[in-house]
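Changelog note: in this version the structure field was regenerated for every chain. One regenerated record is shown below for reference.
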Amino acid sequence: MFRSHNVATRIFDRQISSPAPGSAVHYARRFYENLVPNYTIYEVECPDHLFRKFTEDGQYLVCFSRNHQKLIVYRPTWLSYSCKGDCTSTDLPPKARRFESFFTQLYSVSLPCTNELICKDFFLYMESNRYGLFATSTGQIHDAMPVGGAVLGVPSIEKITFHLLRLEDGVVLDQRSFHHDFINLAHNAGAFLYDDLLAIVSLRYQTLHILQIRESGNLVDVRAIGTYCREDDELFLNSHVQNIHETTVACFHSGLKQRLLSFIFRGMWNEETDPTLRVQGLKKKFYFHFQDYVDLIIWKVQFLDRHHLLIKFGSVEGVISRNTDLHPAFFAVYNMETTEIVAFYQNSADELYLLFEQFYDHFHATSRNSYTMNFVSSHSNNMHAREQLRCVKNKASSSLQFVKKMLASLPFNCQSQSPSPYFDQSLFRFDEKLISATDRHRQSTDHPIKFILRRQPYTLKFKIKPGPEAGSIDSRTKKISSFLFHPFLPLALSIQQTLYLQPAVVNIHFRK
């Protein structure tokens, strides 16, 4: 049905009619078809910072200094200016074309200690208390010796520190350090925040550290899952192995690995009722691959809810490899309260893919206090995204490879998507190869990215063009772009940079 795109008409319709139950937010978001960032200021005069992202509530813009020493936080403000004479000109006054016209700096604080640098790709936001979690670390040691139960082949970082800040004033509330460990900080891969619970994955020591962020701003240990699963496991073992030789104790599998092996064994045991067939099946499926199961290590983890974790297992080679698609991987669902493995899948399992396809939003576990993140488009809540997935599936040459490719994104990186309504696929159509809600750098293009209405009259509503207005002079230089959209205002930043540490080209896109 055709709807008027006149703002006044839409406001009048809102006054005389009410949306269907449960659709009030979706109905209100249609106003963004009228309110679009239709004006661009190219090559804005701005500080030479590393721009990270807007917080989910839109209150802060988080940036880092180029030397990875300082955290700089800005407050987004709307452009206002005065001019002499006729103000109807399309050009803005020079003072209005500056970065400071849109953002007010709140503070700049130094986070790292000696020899540490800020990880520019790591930032988690706790919206309920407006706390920010940042990470600093020293350099990697690739040929570190595996001491103290560390996994052979996993790099070591001398010190990794997580800093909990109150973003309102930049006060550091608490810190937590890990020594001679390895945590994947890129794109929040090694940590996951759900409500007030924080999971941190120690790849080197194969431990899941579960912490709670209290309202007072303290990081409190809840449990450590790995060698032991329950709080009293260590005490129980120590009291029962006094008469066992120390070398025998060292050969024990970790508590989590023991539960995983037991679950796999019981699953294969229950597949057959005939004793002879059962033994044959265990020989082929379990004992033949036993060492492969033993060698599995934790790659990544995410919360599904407050009690269940989705854990990804794989080989040691997959941890240090950039292309994990070449390595076998498995997924396990772990209940922290009962310490049980409740499900186990290979990364080519059709059963897991069907769950992924139909209940995609459940894998993107968002905190209860996160209002805006509940409306990110996906193929389980949006017919257009579902149709795109169906087209990709039909074009795939191999069903097995397609399933592996789709499941490779699990577990999801925490807070890796933008809640901006301009990425709502029920409102706008755009090229997802060039731009999407996922927080990732992309290869830059000299052509503007078009946002077209999904509904009649299917017109072009606005364009986002990174880089200089006239295009790049040197087309041979490889450039990458990133896009920061405000969660609800018609405001976006496009940042284009080269690989040679030259100053970035920052454009501001807003509604004039």
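Spot check on this record: The chain is about 20% helix and 30% strand. The CA atoms of residues 228 and 235 lie 10 Å apart.
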